[in-house]
Amino acid sequence: MAGIITLTTDFGLSDPYVGAMKGVILSVNAGARIVDITHLVGACNIVEGALRMAHACPYFPDGTVHIGVVDPGVGGRRRPILVETARHFFVGPDNGIFGPVIESGDVKRVIHLTEKRYFHEPVSATFHGRDIFSPVAARLCLGEPPSSFGPEIGDPATLDLPSPQRRGDEVRGVVLYIDSFGNYITNISREDISHLKGRAVEVRLGDAAIEGLAKTYSDVAPGELTALFGSTGLLEVAESGGDAFKTIREGSGAAVTVRPLP
Asked: Are residues 90 and 172 in the same domain?
């Protein structure tokens, strides 16, 4: 085990919730190394949380345990789960937040967390991040086998993320989320527009029309909009030295098109 536990939540930075989770982890496993991926996921935005976590997790060492808590259904019928992959473990609600991980095909097993002896008692109906996910993650880092925490299940929740659609040479996608710089992260990959390689293209988002693809944010003058493939491997719409969201004013789910210029 790497002894590393990451946290991805929508808890923000001003409330005590993240601190409480860390306190429980360290009470069980004082040697755990806790890494914050982000706590600024939009409130209850499961898709954003899933993608932000999925974009960061591959860079962690084998054996890392990732806790994801964007959990609007906490205390309801959704199950608490543990997902084991070839390299990592994921602990959190069964609401789709681990959808990209499950759909990667790298999953060894999924466990329904039912063994209450591993929980922090009393378990709050509104804070499973503290009382279930944190102590389970800490125990995993101490070497407790996944099978100790409950039975395997075969029907974990996934996300119904939209796929880019091609009509003729035009590719139509959507904005998945907007990062803290105001960059629009879309669902369009290089492969999705590989048929346009070597051709001049236009990227359109809302009323903004951007000619050509840049390699870096600084390829255009400050204040100008640009389109490029970012570090996630997905097409972004950004503003050099600025905030594209404040300029374009479109939200998550907005349509994005890439088409060849005449």
From this structure: no
24 and 74 both lie in a single domain: yes
* In-domain check, residue 91: yes
Do 33 and 141 fall into the same domain? yes
CA 248 – CA 42 distance, rounded (Å): 19
Closest C-alpha to 222, from 247, 251, 202: 247
Count of CB atoms situated within 10 Å of the CB of 218: 11
Which is nearest to 136 in space by CA: 5, 15, 34?
5
Residue 49 lies in a domain: yes
Which candidate, 236, 240, 242, places its Cα nearest to that of 256? 236
Residue 259's identity, in one-letter code, is R
Which pTM does this prediction carry? 0.93
**Whether 118 and 233 share a structural domain:** no
Domain hosting 197: range is 165-260
What percent of the chain is modeled with pLDDT above 90? Answer: 98
CATH of the domain at 205: 2.40.30.90
Tell me how many domains the chain contains. Answer: 2
Dihedral, CA of residue 37, residue 39, residue 43 and residue 48, to nearest 10: -10
Q: pLDDT tens-digit profile of 143-173? A: 999 999 999 999 999 998 999 999 999 999 9
Q: At residue 54, what are phi and psi to the nearest 5 degrees?
A: -60, -30
Q: What tokens appear for 125 in the block?
A: 């109906």
Q: What are phi and psi of 11, to 5 degrees?
A: -80, -15
**Residues 106 and 85: beta-carbon distance below 8 Å:** yes
Same domain flag for 9 and 127? yes
111-146 pLDDT per residue, tens:
999 999 999 999 999 999 999 999 999 999 999 999
Query: Where is 5: in which H helix or E strand?
Result: strand 4-9
